[in-house]
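Researcher: Batch entry, complex prediction.
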Amino acid sequence: MAQEYRIDPWGTAVRIEYEKLFKYFGISEFAPLLPRIREVFGEPLHLMRRGVIFGHRDYERILEAYKSRERIALVTGFMPSGKFHFGHKMVAEQIIYYQKLGFEVFVVIADAEAYAVRKLDRKKVIEYGLYEYVANLIALGLEKNKHTHIYFQTNYEKPYYRLIQMFSRRVTMAEMEAIYGNMEPGKVIAALTQAADILHPQLEYFGGFKHVLVPVGADQDPHMRLTRDIADRFKSELGFERPSSTYHRFQVGLDGNKMSSSRPDHTIFLTDPPEQAVRKLKRALTGGRATIEEQRRLGGVPEACTVYEFYVYHLIFSDKELLDIYRRCRGGELLCGECKSYATELLAKFLEEHQKKLEKARDRVLDYAEPPEF
Amino acid sequence: MAQEYRIDPWGTAVRIEYEKLFKYFGISEFAPLLPRIREVFGEPLHLMRRGVIFGHRDYERILEAYKSRERIALVTGFMPSGKFHFGHKMVAEQIIYYQKLGFEVFVVIADAEAYAVRKLDRKKVIEYGLYEYVANLIALGLEKNKHTHIYFQTNYEKPYYRLIQMFSRRVTMAEMEAIYGNMEPGKVIAALTQAADILHPQLEYFGGFKHVLVPVGADQDPHMRLTRDIADRFKSELGFERPSSTYHRFQVGLDGNKMSSSRPDHTIFLTDPPEQAVRKLKRALTGGRATIEEQRRLGGVPEACTVYEFYVYHLIFSDKELLDIYRRCRGGELLCGECKSYATELLAKFLEEHQKKLEKARDRVLDYAEPPEF
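Model: Structure tokens for the complex:
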């Protein structure tokens, strides 16, 4: 392994220079909030405890609001560009965690953006939206109540579209280009739509003011900055407050590169037959050494191991058990073969159970979301 | 008068190089259609007969469709940026002419564009939309039937917004810049919205396919070209056919420059108290000569006269009477004082009658259009 990893039991297989985000963009570290989260919310999500969620903006406001029993909306979205994989599951778990705490939930299926910017087939996009994204959210435990809103961007309420139109007044092309690079009409609309996705839950029409929390990937912060600026610019006219946000690391693909629907050999989907998922995980890049002898002597590098990352994100919920694996790996005691066997066992078990729920969930997608007619 | 005018009894006070439109952009002359219009529709509108409507694209298609009893939508819009003046009335008369022929009517109140691009106050824009534009349309004779659709851009149906999103996929920023110059986000949305305004009546959701006719000012042809291109690009996906269009000249203000809400001294509004309107018209630029003697000798120049233009567009509906005034003016027989007296008399009479209808019409605006809540 040429790269150097910081020793970190919650480590990730790719180093992203998160420090830059803290230093230059004013994102705050999430870890110091954990005691307060425990106090206000109870047990933090494993993704919080393990630093997968590593940064935030104005999260304190969410904690205060929760303590004062004010309304809070959890807003997030999915691009229905392919099958639902474990990277998506991580976001779903955050949604469900906050829903259990009593947050109102707004989930946008970004079908307009998938069609206009990603240039995907419209029918496919709608089908993925319903039968991959909505279905998996249900199977993972998203409840349907009067505060659960899952919507397609092309099939929502008038005041949402009105926001997109209105926002266009107070955003310049120069600002957009600074964030998104070269702009095309589809990207202009997608960016303003995203701001409407985040801010619309505060409108009277959508039930009146609520604080907004948006869990996003680290790369999405420019959107958050633009949306926070838009909130400021429409504060007097529409009464908006800035949204809060959290930032999570991305789980990598099984070869250490990007996890993506377009890289199916290195990405495990929640619909993969367990045998197939197991085969993929068996071939995954680990932090093992060249020889067994060397590994016994030097220990493995869990920070560089995509299997270990699966434990951190998805397969092991006890921190104690996870730390034990970490120590045994680093100590040269636990070798990759044994470790992979255990991981595949947990993975197969999860998938079997999940896919049973998913089958039932598919019959219920239309209770959760209304797809566009075209 | 330094400028030279073509002798033309239907002439306008400003020369616009309409020939360029014919030559370079493929707009066809409207006049040759008149016999066929008489045959298919009956008596042409005075604005057609007098060359105010001077050009078209694919109007033959509309005539054919009408003859075959196919459905046709007349689509047009108003920017609610101020009070309703005689320039707007000319468009209203076209709408009403086609409605009487049985066309379905779609009138957009461009409140999103007024707010986002023109940067007007939102409440004002909505108020103008209802109590100036919708009210005057009703007072001028627009009927409410199941095929009359007047809508605000920010308060319409989902599939309309879906079109805006979808169109953004197949339009480039370079194309838009070629048409509109420097693009800002508000202009991108306004341009795509305009295409949706024109094309949406063809959708199943809005009652299924109909041919579309759009009467516009000569300066609006670039929008038409973009929209026709968009129709082509979505033909297979959404079944669109290209819209047809007609092109009209603009009546000028009373000083010979632009007629505009922002130039109230030179623009007559349909809500002006008759005395005030009369005062404005009395001061209007005419085609008179420096002295009475000279005018008796050389004759007046009706082509340069804003009062004569009022006759052409609004005050005289008999071509015979109009031609008589034209000849008497050119012959030096009719002088400006007498002519203005007659014009102000007709104008005052029109305004008195119109304003009675307008008072009643204001109570009915909500039967015609639903304003946005914010």
